Amino acid sequence: MLISFSCFSSTSLGVSLSENPDGTVFYNTLDLFNELAEGEMLEDQFGYTITDGETTDDGLVTITITGTNDGPQILVRDRAVNAAEDEAYVFTEADIFDNLVDPEGDDVVSINFVNLPDQGMLFYDGNPITLSQLADGSDPLLVMRTDVMAGKFTFFGDLNEFGSPYGVFKYFAYDEFGAVSWTIFSSSLSSESVEMTINVASVNDA
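Below the sequence we write its predicted structure tokens.
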């Protein structure tokens, strides 16, 4: 006896459904429920029809979605700032955090680094940031948002050097519970970094 199965193309909450060749149904939430807080639950439903060619029956599937803590969402992955030759650039809160929003409304509190600029140097609280302090280094460094607001995160280019672009670095951002940044522009919802380009304008040397 040949039994066939069909289901609606979407659920009551708007999640898209697709039937796989093996008879299973793919329930693709993507980022629809990222606003759910840790442990918060929501129910979704979809209907289906099953038949053997003679008898047809309808059914309803209920799915419970349980929220997890999502990291900050990157709204704009590529960022840029404009510095001047032979002058320190002081990063602002807007430079670093304005392109980030947390789906659950948690505070975005810190960043750390994927790489350092090829030219010039980043400083945190007056100390140069080193390779060992990268996210995958032996002594990862977190730069706190409050310290960025206090002017403690800076960049200084090499003496008498300029260019556009001059240097590039990437950074992850974290919410107050330690969840890492991600972006809808990726093929997955795994961790993603922001890319910051530093342009350094020339000045007239005496």
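The first strand starts at residue 4 and ends at 7.
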